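Collaborator request, handled under Task 6.
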Amino acid sequence: MIIGDSLSAGYGISAERAWPALLGHRLAEKGYDYSVRNLSISGETTAGGRSRLPMALVKYRPKIVILALGANDGLRGLPLEQMDNNLRAMIAEIRRVGAKVLLVGMQLPPNYGPYATAFAKSFQDLSKESRIPLLPFLLAPIAEQRVFFQADQLHPTADAQPLLLDHVWPALQPLLKPVGGR
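Structure tokens returned to the collaborator:
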């Protein structure tokens, strides 16, 4: 199950071309017995994800949750303590139901100054504190290549989605139950 924002919802492209849909195909191709539920919503914040999470956990009973929230908190300049508390609560709730967590971090543009540095560090600190894996920056493989962004220069194009999946895959794969169930 993926709980994220527009970067995982596939804003501006068809949902079938977004990296979560591509993840479903890769899992099937590799013989993993998982389905993908993408519950990402454009504009979602950690507070919104936190409020939706309990019902989603009951409804879908995921084995793994990819937690890819925080970008909108950061772009709005929300207090980092608030974001951290929301993510911490979500991680605890996910663990309470016995699911594994992959935390996906984000970075802000450098013009956010010291807030941008503290923002990126908050994901690292939360990963260490919670002892969960972290993908530090979802957009790392495309961040410096404007050709992979839509006209708004914020949201990845359809052509960028396979690169995002290739970036997420090595962080996710250790959480997957081996093919054949061993």
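The cover message to the collaborator said: "The first strand starts at residue 2 and ends at 4. The beta strands are 2-4, 64-68, 100-104, 134-135. Please let us know whether this matches your experimental observations."
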